[in-house]
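Comment thread on ticket #2218

A.B. wrote:
> Attaching the input chain for the structure job we discussed in standup.
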Amino acid sequence: MKQADLQTYLLKNAAEKLIPLHCLFELTYRCNLNCLYCYITKNKKKELEKEKVFGILRQLKEAGCFYLTFSGGEPLIRKDFFEIADYARKLKFALRIFTNATLVNESIADKLGNLKPISVEISLCGFKDMHEEMTRVKNSFDKTVKAIRLLRERNVEVLVKMTLTKQNVSQVWKLKRFVKKELGVKWRGIGGNFLVSPCDDGNKRPLQYRLTDEQLKKYIKEEKEEFRSVGKEYKPGKVKKNDILCGAGRSGCNITPSGELNPCAQIRLKKNCLNGHNLSDVWQYHPELNYIRSLRVKDLSECRKCELLSYCFYCPGIARLEQGSFLSKLPEACRLAKIRKEIYSEVNDGQKE
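C.D. wrote:
> Ran it. Output below, let me know if you need it in another format.
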């Protein structure tokens, strides 16, 4: 069985049995950058101490977690990061690290290499001027690019990703070529769902950076051609009324720096702190978590008969942040679906001719 097929099988099996196969563990919300579109809200909750992190890692392992991602904020800010990461490797987790990489020097690159992570994922917002306009930190581009080269020299699998905004969308394909040809690492890219999210407290400040209609149309056309160039094609899937609305809280979970368990980073629950509570109990029996798992397409009263549904990348977490409910109609998802359908209908009509 190919690795991709094996992972698909594992994820499907885990979702059916409600095993948290993968976890995004936000070790800190502190960050040395100040990105314009960042969704993280600063709060006064205390970060978990190292020993408590160890305890949660043991509970994750017992619950069946295998893929573990350390994120932030900027996880390398924690002085005990490598103690935590070394402990995670002793527990045999397959480790991923999300970092802006500006803190990576020769010594840290050596330590990251010794961890042998599945991948280190690093964001670039564009080329130098654009990147630093978005991160609001001078020389952050040069530091990140230098770090990518250092990690590549140590045979660390680096994936570069990009959050698409109306400021940087014009640089996306040129940046992809730079990443692959000049830096010699993989491009993780944008993905099908590139919604800029509200802040996790519902503040809509980041939404001003979403693409305009014209930018979206242009990007999706270019995306389609980019897919075709490597033999891929986007095809809208058939959506059934009993389909699960969202996979959050089935095969994956999120843990915050203060030790709160969530179905994903877009959905922050209440009364979900693991301090004094067993992770498996919260995972299995938290009422709001089980409510999210119960949601089906048919529960979207405003959307279930929509002709755009097969083109829609609906996110109940973002819907609640923007509109107040997991089941609210999400205007941004509608906008994306309408444009995607328009672009792919034009293509299909042209092919028939």
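A.B. wrote:
> Thanks. Noting for the ticket: The domain at 13-229 is CATH 3.20.20.70 (TIM Barrel).
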